[in-house]
Structures are given as structure tokens and as C-alpha cells.
Amino acid sequence: MVLANGLRGHPLVRNLAHSWDSRWYLHIADRGYGHLIYITPDGAVQTDWAFFPLYPALIRALTTVSPLTPGQAGMVLAGAAALAAACGAYAVGHHLYGRGVATALVALWAVLPHAVELTIAYTESLFAALAAWSLYGVLKGRWLWAGSLAALAGLVRPSGFAVAVAVALAAVHEVLRRRGRVPARLWAGAVLAPLGWLGYVLWVGTRTGDPLGGYLEVQSAWGSRFDFGAGALRFLRALLLHGGGLVYPAALLIVATSVLLFALLCLDRAPLVLVVYAGVLILLALGGSGSFSSKPRFLLPAFPLLIPAARALARSWRLHPAQAVCLYGALAAASLGFGAYVLAVAHSPL
């Protein structure tokens, strides 16, 4: 990425900290909410209330106790969170299938086409870290841990809803399985899980004067709403009729592959909490409006989708290590090239 910027004569790392939504997060970290609006050409009023608070709050905290600028702090947090997310994904994979599959799972997640966006001043890496460790908490039966981390994930992104639903449904399944004989901490974890997401949505609603619908109005001004896939179908039609360079066909391929991987995850009989989490993320990506080029980024935290492929890669490594190395090397090279293109060359929304 830095090399691509250098070859094009751009600042080496500035676009890693100041790309698209990053500027809004950094402004919130510096000034708080309610100080930045943008009026679109069609008259929609976009406000900073569309952005959840935990990431800018952490940026503010880090700049307070260190000499880092907000942009530098955002990148440090994103990088640290990406590492924590990788450890969480490894823990999930190791718990279910052992070290080989866990290693392959993290390796595949690291070379996803949009994995470079885990290193910029965006929220995906922080969300993925909290989600991964929350899911691990469910798998280990640590319900208070799982619920608390799910609540924090709900303060990072709108898709924190997916973690809350996964934890809650896993708790219901456990209650049914045990016929109601469950510890109090399970109920506490299930109650905690949605509080972060729900709390911020209601707070935005009260600020707009409409507690129940205010947040949806704020998101609608950004062109972000759940339209049951109507926007995705319009995008597909436009892409087939007019084409779309490299980024948009790649986004379509990534989303379609994610749906296929979800089907394989279900056939693999993965734990319910992983299936629900990944399924809700796919549902939000497919059913939500907005730029299609951003949908692969929305799916970055859905690491459980890679479990079937990780199991296959682990088997390949045992049986045909040379072929596995060549395959992984090709995936890594493609990921680096595509990531550099998306950030340094393409002008499509991230």
C-alpha cells in the first residue's frame, strides 16, 4: 500500500488514516458529536450521528495519553484490533478443530481481497476483534464475557446487531437444550448482549426527537437502509448493462462467494452461534442499500465463513504441502495487489 502510494506520488500513509468514513471518525474523536454535517446535492442532511461511538472514543483516549495525532491513533488502534481479531479467530478455530485448522483460518482471513481495510482507520478490525472473542466466549460457556463483548461490539458498528442476535439465540438454544436448567450468568449474558447497540440507537433517536425511528432517519440520509435487496438487484442490473471497472465486479464476486461459503458452513454443521453471526452479517450486506463496493468490507468480520475452506486448506497442507504453499502464495499476492488498487488507485467508496 505504501509502495503504491509512493509510485503514484501520493503521501505514503495519509490515505490509510483519512479515507472516506475515517475523516468522520477522526472529527468525532476531536470534537464530539453534533459538530459536522454534510448536505448532499439532493438535499439530504448527513450527520455524524450515523457513526457509532466506541472507536472515536478510543482514539480520543489514546491521543489524550500519548503524543499521537488522531489519524495515527486510529491506525494504531486498527492494527492492534486486527491482531486481536486474528487471535480471536484462531481461538475459535483451535477450540473447534485444532491448531492446523485455526492457523489456516487466520491465514485465509489475512488474505481476503479487502483485508487491507483492516489496517486503515476504520472500525472493521475493532468490531471483528470484539465479535470473535464474544463468539469464543459462547463456545466456552463464558456467558458474561460473551454478553459484555457483544455489548461493546454493538457500540462499534450497526452490524453489532449480528453479535447480539448470535449470542441471544445461542443462549435460547442452550436453555432449550438444558430444559431451562441454566446458570444465572447465561441469562445475564443474553441480556447484556444487545445493550450497546440498542443504547446508541435510542440515544440517537432521542437527539433527533424520535426515539424509535430517529436513528433510521439518520441512516436513511446516508442512503443506508434495509431494502430487502432491492438496491442490490438494481446494482446487478446496472452492472450487467453498463459494466463497472474492476472494483464492482470484484465486489459482486466476493459477496456471491460469501453466500456460497455460508451454505458450506451450514452443511459443515458449525455451532449455531457462528452460523447465526455469519448469516446475519450476510443478510445485512445483501439486504442493505448503499454502495455495493462497500459490501465486501462489511463482510470482513464474518471470519466463520472461512471455516470450511480452512479445513480443506489444513488437509491439503498435510497431504500436499507444496501445492498448499503455492495456492496460499497466489492468494496473498492477489490480496496485496487488489488492496493496493482499492486504496491507492480506485475512487469507489470504501
TrEMBL record:
Supply the InterPro entries for this chain.
PIG-V/Gpi18
**Pathway where this protein functions:** Glycolipid biosynthesis; glycosylphosphatidylinositol-anchor biosynthesis
Which domain of life, per UniProt? Answer: Bacteria
Provide this UniProt record's keywords sorted from A to Z: Endoplasmic reticulum, Glycosyltransferase, GPI-anchor biosynthesis, Membrane, Transferase, Transmembrane, Transmembrane helix
Q: Membrane topology per the record? A: Multi-pass membrane protein
> For this UniProt entry, which segments traverse the membrane?
73-92, 104-123, 143-172, 184-203, 246-267, 274-292, 298-314, 326-346
Indicate whether Endoplasmic reticulum appears among the record's keywords: yes
Location in the cell reads:
Endoplasmic reticulum membrane
Protein name listed in UniProt: Glycosyltransferase RgtA/B/C/D-like domain-containing protein
Q: Which organism is it from?
A: Streptomyces pyxinicus
